[in-house]
Amino acid sequence: MEVSGKTKVFCVIGNPIEHSLSPIMHNAAFRHLNIDAVYVAFKVEEEALEDAVMGMRSLGICGMNVTMPHKTAIVKYLDETDPAAKFVGAVNTVLNADGKLVGFNTDGVGALRALEENHVKPRGKKFLLLGAGGAGRAIAFQLTQEADELIILNRDANKARVLADALRKRFNKKVIGESLSYNVLKEWIKNVDVLINATSVGMHPNQNETLVEKSLLRPELTVMDIVYDPIETKLLKDAKSVGAKVIYGTEMLVFQGAASFEIWFDRPAPVNVMRESIMERLQARGLGFGR
Ligand SMILES: NC(=O)c1ccc[n+]([C@@H]2O[C@H](COP(=O)([O-])OP(=O)(O)OC[C@H]3O[C@@H](n4cnc5c(N)ncnc54)[C@H](OP(=O)(O)O)[C@@H]3O)[C@@H](O)[C@H]2O)c1
Q1: Are 82 and 177 found together in one domain?
Q2: Is the CB of 195 under 6 A from ligand 1?
Q3: Hey, which of 12, 156, 200 would you mutate to test ligand 1's pocket, going by the most ligand atoms within 8 Å of its Cβ?
Q4: For helices 22-32 and 249-265, angle between their N-to-C axes, nearest 10 degrees
Q5: How many independent structural domains does the chain possess?
Q6: What confidence tens digit (pLDDT) does each residue in 197-209 have?
Q7: Per the domain annotation, does 200 fall within a domain?
Q8: Are residues 64 and 135 in the same domain?
Q9: 115 and 240 housed in the same domain
Q10: DSSP string, 150-205
């Protein structure tokens, strides 16, 4: 693709940013669909965030992804936010709609689509979600609307309770928030269809860690881990070994990116091309199955 005066610019901002997979995934999509656009990564220090948002406006950058540490702080510089971003208090996608900057949070819809595309329909099912951090809250917001029942466990129990209360009030569904202790986990896991790890436990360099003892896993359970470094976490290895269905964190990564693409272009994202591009890069980096 030749870059010209008409080429549209998209970007991701964060710090650190060098290892972001978003440029790989979105440029692969642009190339595949012959879209005259480029996607670049910008390292933005915390104190420079407001300037970066002003730069998006003045340079006419069409769309932006936002990653750590700016997901929460960026909200106040935007003109509008969608309901998910408002509830979660964090934005990972910005659309520049003719000068109006609109913030979205695609983590929840990305997780939901990862489940659905892997043949797990949330309707009528009971979910156990570990983690009430940024990603956990986004997933809980989306899941509550679809699932039968949601149990949220978090190390800081208060965060889980506050989140569950807010979701119950908003959607009038069965949502429970409790502490992430062994005994509580052991009781709840017996009664659910799907377990999702939305904590950072198991992520490199602590890839031998898991919050769920293997003896608590069973073949009828679906287990999704949103950690994608390594691709196959200890939790997913254990789940696979007992015969449970597993869904990798790379699936959510692809579908949250696809949701950003669809917000910017209002057309279906080429998810297979996006998936292939990041799997290739992760495996080249040695982040594959058992690093
Ligand atoms: N696949 C994807 O597309 C995708 C998207 C977003 C994030 N992620 C991954 O998801 C993970 C969480 O991201 P985030 O943005 O939600 O981070 P975050 O806001 O910092 O939240 C971290 C979560 O992990 C919990 N936690 C951390 N260490 C723990 C421990 N030792 N024991 C129990 N719980 C622990 C925290 O509990 P406390 O509240 O008690 O501290 C909190 O619930 C990261 O690994 C990130 O890379 C993946």
Answers
A1: no
A2: no
A3: 200
A4: 50
A5: 2
A6: 999 999 999 999 9
A7: yes
A8: no
A9: yes
A10: EEEEESSHHHHHHHHHHHHHHH--EEEEEE--HHHHHHHHTT-SEEEE-SSTT-TT
Instruction: Tell me: do 133 and 214 sit in the same domain.
Output: yes
* pLDDT greater than 80 at residue 289: no
Structural domain range at position 47:
8-105+254-284
Question: 115 and 242 in one domain?
Answer: yes
Please check the confidence at residue 225 and state whether its pLDDT lies above 60: yes
According to the model, what pLDDT value does residue 283 have? 86
* Both structure tokens of 8: 């549209």
pLDDT of 290 above 70: no
Task: Indicate whether 184 and 128 sit together in one domain.
Answer: yes
- Please tell me whether residues 44 and 122 are part of one structural domain: no
What residues act catalytically? 71
Q: What are the DSSP calls for 232-267, one per residue?
A: S-HHHHHHHHTT-EEE-HHHHHHHHHHHHHHHHHSS
Q: Write the pLDDT tens digit of every residue in 63-72.
A: 999 999 999 9
Mean of pLDDT values over 155-168: 98
**Is residue 194 predicted with pLDDT exceeding 70?**
yes
CATH number at residue 141: 3.40.50.720
| CB of 108 shorter than 6 A to ligand 1 | no
Structural domain includes residue 125? yes
Both 230 and 132 in one domain: the answer is: yes
C-alpha 121 to ligand 1 mean position (Å): 24
Sequence-separated (6 or more) residues with CB below 8 Å from residue 145: 171, 173
- Residue 3 included in any domain: no
Within-domain flag for 2: no
Neighbouring-strand partners of residue 39: 10
Amino acid type, 55: G
CA of 132 to the centre of ligand 1 (A): 8
Separation of CA 56 and ligand 1 centre (Å):
28
For the cut 70, the answer to whether the pLDDT of residue 167 exceeds it is yes
The response to whether residue 199 sits with its C-beta less than 6 Å from ligand 1 reads yes
